Amino acid sequence: MEPTFRDVVRINDQAAQRRWRRGGGAPPIPQDPIPVGSNVRLTLRDKPGGDVVDERVSHNIFLNYGREWISELVGLDAGYVPFRTDRIRYMAFGIGGTDQLIPSATLRALWTGFPNAWGFTNPADPTTGGYGVDSGPAVGDPAQTDTDPLVTGLEYPVQYESASYADDVAAPASFPEAGTVRFTTVLGYNQVSFGAATSVPISEIGLFTETADPLDPPLPATRQVTPPIPPLPGLGVRYMVAYNTFPPLSKTSAFVLQVDWELRFA
User: Fold this and answer.
1) Is the residue at 32 inside a domain?
2) Would residue 161 count as lying in a domain?
């Protein structure tokens, strides 16, 4: 039997709210939806806080993993124990996404021999030092978009520093206005662009919770060789909550890159 009273509050990029009340009829006071919006600004600067050389400003997608994270963060399990308590801590960078202008074959040809600086874009056979489940070299151009909420990881992650794939966001987080939280990180001169990778065309970025392992490449769940331990049993990898792609910014040791990423609940 269909219940006569039900509340469904759906929080996403285009939020919807539906209320059924006992006896029918509309609620006496109109209720506004609660959208989860976000905005990403990347600024390439000559020095920290210096002149802006280049920038990208765009609206990212809040992923299905992010929606699950919010619902599990605010709910309590039996005994009033939190389902999860992990907050936003990391940003990770990549050269994937459909906004990447350089064909991946060109990237692989230019940087063959440097898999530790380019993650999945080099030979993907695990026996050659790459990552993934492919039996041979990686092929094809980037395909991920920032309009697909099913994205689960960076397509072609790059290292932030040697043997590390994620940068800490600044603490404390800032709150520019009610219902908005801003996460900021600044890549130094020799971060992402280091060693033989002197110019890195960054074109994708992800926002991760603190349970992610910064030493593991943040690949999509379907391309993990040995996935990290999930925060909840049986749920798989649930660390990247938001994703963004943009026309590439060339990160070199001549510049720093500041990222300001806002999540807006309003």
Assistant:
1) no
2) yes
Query: CB 223: neighbour CB atoms within 10 A?
Result: 18
Q: Are strands 180-187 and 256-265 parallel, antiparallel or unpaired?
A: antiparallel
Beta strands in the chain (DSSP E): 6-10, 16-20, 36-45, 52-58, 61-62, 88-94, 166-168, 180-187, 199-209, 240-252, 256-265
pLDDT, residue 171, reads 97
Torsions phi, psi of 122, nearest 5?
-90, 180
Q: Are 33 and 15 in contact (CB under 8 A)?
A: yes
Question: 3-class SS at 67?
Answer: helix
In-domain check, residue 23: no
Residue 126: phi and psi, rounded to 5, are -55, -25
Determine contact, residues 102/199, Cβ cutoff 8 Å: no
- Examine the pLDDT at 141 and tell me if it is beyond 90: no
On whether residue 149 sits in a domain, the answer given is yes
3-state secondary structure of 190: coil
> If DSSP codes are grouped into helix, strand and coil, which group holds residue 209?
strand
* Residue 125 token pair: 């056979």
Burial 27-54 (b: 16+ CB within 10 A, else e): eeeeeeeebbbbbbebbbbeeeeeeeee
pLDDT tens-digit profile of 90-115? 999 998 899 999 887 777 666 554 44
- Of the listed ranges 129-138, 140-149, 221-230, the least confidently predicted one is 129-138
Q: Name residue, tokens 């990160």.
A: 251
Domain of residue 139, residue span = 6-14+53-265
CB 170 within 8 A of CB 163: no
Read off the tokens for 226.
């040995």
Q: How many structural domains compose the chain? A: 1
| Type of residue numbered 109 | A
